[in-house]
Amino acid sequence: xxxxxxxxxxxxxxxxxxxLVWGEPKVSPMDQVKSEIDQSLAILKNPKLKPHERSxxxxxxxDKSVEWHEVAKRVLGIRWRRVNSEQREKFTELFxxxxxxxxxxxxxxxxxxxxxxxxxxxxxxxxxxxxxIYTKTxxxxxxxxxxxxDKEGKWMVYDILIEGVSMVNNYRVQINNILVNSxxxxxxxxxxxxxxxxxxxA
Length: 202
Description:
Helix content is 51%, strand content 20%. The protein has 202 residues and is α+β, with helices and mostly antiparallel strands.
């Protein structure tokens, strides 16, 4: 299985949830996921767009659809309470740029994977949407769970689980590995350098 390719496709489908207009009735988590998958596929299949334009369009949607503070808080875990507000903001912004830069050049790897919608579970202010992804390289589908939080009437992503493995937990391990031998501020500098390197190679 080409794991990197599968993760990229799943990440694309779940992070791009639509940005709702204030005052409209809240769309269900499942309807949001379905709607945005169609929009994402339309972008990927648009022959008029160049690869970097497709990436920019999708990342613009992603940026508005993820609750970055919630993700950053969960990635830092207990350390979130140990740092000041300025450090939290710096980490949140750098982490967002790291995630976006990490996926900026990978959207073109989508190659017709099929999606089967499962169920949604809502326990305000949280919800979960369950999907299965059928690829051309595997006989069994890949299970995915998209976790969302209600922020002022908008369902926003804060974690994705692929075959039960949390992407937030994966990022937490990476950050903790840096913090083992570094201060928080040094970790921020390391993360900044990673972002710069990713942008140069994109």
